[in-house]
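user: Kindly work through both lines:
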Amino acid sequence: MNDFIEVYPGALSAELCARLIERFRADGGRHPGRVGSGVMPELKNSEDLTLTGRSDWQDAEAALNNVLFACLLRYVRQYPYMLIAPLMLQLSDPHTGEARRITEQDIRAMDDDALGNLVRTCLRPGGINLQHYRANEGGYPYWHCELYPKDPSCEPLHRHLLWTVYLNEGFAEGETEFLYQQRKITPSTGALLIAPTAFTHTHRGNRPRGGDKYIATSWVLFQRAETLFGPRPG
């Protein structure tokens, strides 16, 4: 049975991974990692850097989003109902001109340009964080998912997929471990992980042993309702 956890090896080049780690180390904006309720090192012990909103990191953010988007198209082709099921998408039938529901066959038949336009219409990238987990002490041992109702903006409730790029390897353990799937993803330089955000994919970041661990991570979010469906009447 498919577990909806996909890993794309070598999505990011080893050279770019190394440059991102070097820039991270040199940046004075690093801060203690946070969970939804703040800094709680007993739950998440990391050093983070938020790229989104930083003009000096726009190139890195664009490069990471480009890599993510290419892998996301592959993910959507494999799991077309990740778009169809929540949104009841329609297209204009080329033979009749009438609107009809999009099927999984339609999505799999689309070329990259058409599918890319559909994905951009429905989904948007989240803010990207670089994270450093120190050898033998850092980690995210708390079992968690990515949906979080406390934020008044409701942004965390728009998260549809999570993604992580592993920027290095050369340490023991440090896996992304999924609880119900009983699966551990071993970090490999440049590999990109995509998985759903809900409690079904509760996960944790195991402590790296014998070496530091670096990742880039974020989410794929639904567009907000006013973008998808227009402003509410009245």
In short: The helical segments are 14-26, 58-78, 81-87, 104-109, 112-122, 225-229. The first strand starts at residue 6 and ends at 8. DSSP finds six helices and 16 strands in the chain.
